Amino acid sequence: MTSTCRYPETELILQEALKEKDLFRALQVAAEGACRLLGLPKVYFARSIGRRLHHLTGFGQEIYLPPLKVNIGHGYYAFLEGSESLAKEKREALVRALQEIVEYFMKGEKRAQ
Amino acid sequence: MFDTAFWIKNQVYGNRIVLFAPLYVSSPCVNDCVYCGFRHSNEAVEKRTLTMEELAEEVRVITSVGHKRVLAVFGEHPDSDVHYICRALETIYSTKEGRNEIRRANVNAAPLSKEEYEIVRDVGIGTYQIFQETYHQDTYRRLHPKGTLKHSYKWRLFALHRAYEAGIDNVAIGVLFGLFDWRFEVLGLLYHAMDMEREFGVGPHTISFPRLEPALNTPFTTRSPYLVKDEELKRIIAILRCAVPYTGLILTARERPELRRELIRLGVSQTDAGSRIAVGGYKEMEKETIWDRQQFIINDTRSLDEFIYDLCQDGYIPSFCTAGYRAGRTGCHFMEFAKKGLVKNFCVPNAILTFKEYLLDYASPRTREMGESVIENYLQQVEQWQPVLARKVREYLARMEAGERDLYV
To answer: Where are the domains of chain B?
Structure first.
């Protein structure tokens, strides 16, 4: 069963991201927030173009281990490195926040290029 | 210089060689390039455009021997326009038989407009490759006659700039060595790479350095005063490797097996194997050369398995990796690792995993035996510099033994 818990850190990531003018900037802010507030070493985003996951933006230091790849909607993917160090509920809360960010901007059609 | 080039290659990518198959999809061409067997006026060579059914048949043959990536090659002709290219790429990606599939399709085709690149981009390509042929403007104009699309030097020179602007951030450059003085051409390649870096912050994903080879009814290919000797080609590769350490260097089956062995050691990171370059040539695999359907001749017709065996004997690990562009490691993100010489942290593990897949599903008994020891050797290397990663790779290898496929880091 998927948890619906909310956490101050993921709420802050969401709030800060939604202040941005477009999805690209919002994802940048979210990546930085996830690293700073949740201690993830690196978070980055890509857009699905056929088989290609085209890099958009990200933050943090590479750890050279397979990242957790998560579909956050509308063809966008998040890559969370070192996510196994996060509690499952917190990880799920982060993913929900990222999905909300994409949904918010896609409704307004402020796509990340 | 040769030792330095080899050292640089191993520092950046590790001792892995990525393998691919060239896939000639169409040969009719509106251009009349003096050196090309497919030139419009060359009636000695039969031109063909594959139907999607014929293309799927070619893909089935290519994937049945273990290939996972192709370079799809298209002529410049209204019959193989941007919409045909997209249909072909969709066919390549969707043709699957059991575990056989193409996971990355790179494209070698004519320069497009920005709007056309956007259409191709949306199919999900790997790399878009365009060779300038020669950077020497007078030679370029002489070899690409007036009245043809290819005559415009600048349209071609900035072709990949337009691709970047259209959102294709993995592009590949190259020269056809033998058209003009190789020293000038090397400098042209380097300036091209520098300009892409300056404009977009991302240099070329790969550089190719094919040599002019004989083609049917194409006398220029043997008479050019600028044909490049073996020793000169070695210097070209070493110079490129030292000058552009982060970029993949592609050697082709144009070269003889014994020379390829020497050239690979100079910093090559990718090469084709088991190649057939006639349009529809894989369906007739038993014919090493179909002289009147090829753009030029190739000198290494070893099978993929033979080639892999020889690579292993020389201590390399063959790789069928297609992870980068499926893990968001494209454009500037890829360069972030490559420029620091850290991309081997992905390349070597993914070489191990994809080579294991080859050994399990396609290899001959002798290659399997040799390959397993190569894998163990490389795993021990990874254990020394990234023990946590090595444990993950061992876990993935066990899952592959149990039947899973397409695992990558």
So the answer is: 2-327, 344-401
- Homologous superfamily assigned to B2-327: Aldolase class I (3.20.20.70)
Q: What is the distance of C-alpha B102 from the center of its chain?
A: 14
User: d(Cα B390, Cα B384) in Å, to the nearest integer?
Assistant: 9
Q: Measured between CB atoms, which of A50, A77, A113 is closest to B328?
A: A77
Residue B195 neighbours by CB under 8 Å, 6+ apart: none
Residues A71-107: tens digit of each pLDDT: 999 999 999 999 999 999 999 999 999 999 999 999 8
Q: Is the predicted pLDDT of residue B320 greater than 60, yes or no?
A: yes
Give the pair of three-digit tokens for residue A44: 């980055």
B242 exposure class (CB count in 10 Å sphere: 0-12, 13-18, 19+): middle
The pTM score is: 0.94
B68 in helix, strand or coil?
coil
Residues B317, B15 contacting (CB under 8 angstroms)? yes
In this prediction, the answer to ipTM > 0.90 reads: no
Q: Which residues in B44-57 are b (16+ Cβ under 10 Å) and which e?
A: ebebbbbeeebbbb
Given a contact cutoff of 8 angstroms between Cβ atoms, the answer to whether B130 and B157 are in contact is no
Residue B380: CB atoms within 10 A of its CB come to 10
Does the beta-carbon distance from B345 to A64 stay under 8 Å? yes
Interchain CB contacts (distance < 8 Å): A and B = 71
Torsion B142-B145-B147-B150 (CA) sign: negative
Which residues of A lie inside 8 Å of B (Cβ-Cβ)?
Answer: 44-46, 48-56, 58, 62, 64-67, 69, 77, 79, 113
Length, in residues, of chain A: 113
Residues of B in contact with A113 (CB under 8 A): 167
Domain at A73, CATH number: 3.30.450.40
**Tell me, what's the pLDDT at A3?**
65
A112 belongs to a structural domain: no
Looking at the domain assignment, is residue A57 inside a domain?
yes
Give chain A's domain count.
1
